[in-house]
Amino acid sequence: MACSAQLTCLMFQHILVAVDGSPTSRFAARHGLSLAEHVRGKATLLFVLEPPSVLPVGPLSGYVLTAPPQTPQDIEKAKAELKDMAAEHPSLTVDARVEVGVPADTICSVANKLGADLIVIGARGMNQAAKWLLGSVSDRVVHHAPCPVMVVRQR
Q: Which of 17, 53, 115, 154 could in theory staple to 32 by disulfide, Cβ–Cβ 3.0 to 4.6 A?
């Protein structure tokens, strides 16, 4: 085996790589996919599209959506991004998934369902404004994941 520690290679046979389209997540994806290639494992690329939040407004039953709902074009764009990332590692078995949901919860749930041995995620993603209100996605994943998490920070 190419690994210096055979145990490490055996531990990470299925790596879940979570991306959101940001440059940081693409950087993290390269690391996660390279690691999966190195240990001759399998990788799942997961792109989570966040649904819009509904905020109540005023004393009546008014509300405001924080973003427009996801469209089929958004899903196709995410699939195309995943396909491009997977193409950079042709010798690797890569499963690509697009899910709609709360990012941290969805990442942890998918990792659990798939029996992932490791989650790779970028330190900062697309929604930096919400980080201050809701907490960062990577932080929530680290604290709630069913397996080890590698947070990749881009310098």
A: 17
Q: Please count the CA atoms within 13 angstroms of the CA of 19 that sit on its side-chain side.
A: 33
Domain membership of residue 124 as a residue range: 13-43+93-155
**pTM attached to this predicted model:** 0.82
Q: Give yes or no for a contact between 47 and 20, defined as CB atoms under 8 angstroms apart.
A: yes
- Counting the structural domains of the chain, the total is 1
Considering just the CA atoms, what is the radius of gyration of the chain in Å?
Answer: 17
Query: Over the chain (155 residues), what is each successive 10-residue block's mean pLDDT?
Result: 52 93 92 93 94 72 69 93 95 94 96 97 66 67 95 85
Q: Is residue 142 part of a domain?
A: yes
Owner of token pair 């990012």: 103
